[in-house]
Amino acid sequence: MAKKSPRLRLNSKSPSARIKDLGPSI
């Protein structure tokens, strides 16, 4: 997953940002 979305790893710090990435990801 990290390889597919390097941004997710960065957002891992912020739970709020993580949900944002998950939205478009799905």
From TrEMBL:
Region (Disordered), start-end ranges: 1-26
Stated name of the protein: Uncharacterized protein
Organism, scientific name: Arundo donax
